[in-house]
Every structure is written in structure tokens, then in C-alpha cells.
Specification:
This protein has about 80 residues and is of the alpha+beta class. Helix content is about 20%, strand content about 40%. It is built from two helices and five strands; from the N terminus they run E-H-E-E-E-E-H. The strands form two sheets. The chain has a three-stranded antiparallel β-sheet with strand order 1-5-2, with helices on one face. It has a two-stranded antiparallel ribbon with strand order 3-4. The chain is elongated and about 55 Å long. The model has no long low-confidence stretch (mean pLDDT about 95).
Length: about 80
Amino acid sequence: MIDNTYKWYPIYTRSRAEKKTQLELNKKQITSYLPLKKTVKQWSDRKKIVEEPLLKSYLFIYISAKEYTEVLTTPGI
């Protein structure tokens, strides 16, 4: 019997594809959480504030057991 209770799970994504993977999960209406931090990046000609993932290559999802295969078929995971 498949458990229908929802739980938070961490998932491992491709390198530097966390934001794109979160968008794909949102298209499938799967609740996800990506903690971001703002950092200042400096190039030779300018500085810019960018948002980077707090945990590289990880994303958190809130799913039940029956949605598990749907998540695994998402590009980037």
C-alpha cells in the first residue's frame, strides 16, 4: 500500500541547475524549496549582487510516495 502522507525530501540536482530544476518541478505542481543567499560577485569591470543556492546541487521537495516517480523523471534530477 502506498503511503499518501506528505514529507520533505532533499534531492540531488545536476551541477548549477538548481533554479532550472525548481522551475520544472513547479510546472508539474510539485512543492519545492530552494534556499538562496545573496552574494556580491566581482568581475574586472563591475560588481553584481547575485542569488546563489545555499546548498550546492540540492533542492527540497514536499511530496507523497505516489509522486516519487514523477519527481525522478524531471530533467535535472
